[in-house]
Amino acid sequence: MNQRRNSSHEQKWGTTSRLNEVIVNISAKTEYACIAMIELAMDYSRGEPVRLKSITERNGIPSRFLVQIMLQLKTAGLVNSIRGAAGGYQLSRAPSSISLGEVMRVIDGGDTDPTSKLAEPNATTAALLQIWNGVYASQNEKLNSISLAELAREIRDAGGDMYYI
User: Considering only Cβ atoms within 10 Å of each terminal Cβ, which end of the chain, N or C, has fewer?
Assistant: First the structure.
């Protein structure tokens, strides 16, 4: 019998079973932003800025793309940039006070509930929208409950591949 055990990550953050899977589309931009923010969270206690080059090299993120993402995060007040030879980026506040949901909203845009694309919604679309809005609310609740500090701790506990120079 070939049964796979659930990892601690699956138990904590949700199932990966295909039958129970909810489809969540995450853009490359959002994924890169989350990776960068987790890297900054993991370096937060050092008090030193993290160079974008180190993030791009460790994660294979195109540097031009990451620069644009970091500017968006800076404009939203989630990161600070430090100029100069020892410059880079730092979180603007403690990783425990920044949620994954907040990062994703900054990159993807504000909170917009699902809406019907039909010119004249009907009872069928109303039923679908009720379900989709419930899923959307649950998803936001889950993402808002996960802090960057929790993710950094999870990665460290799992022996994550983030390292420091």
Answer: N
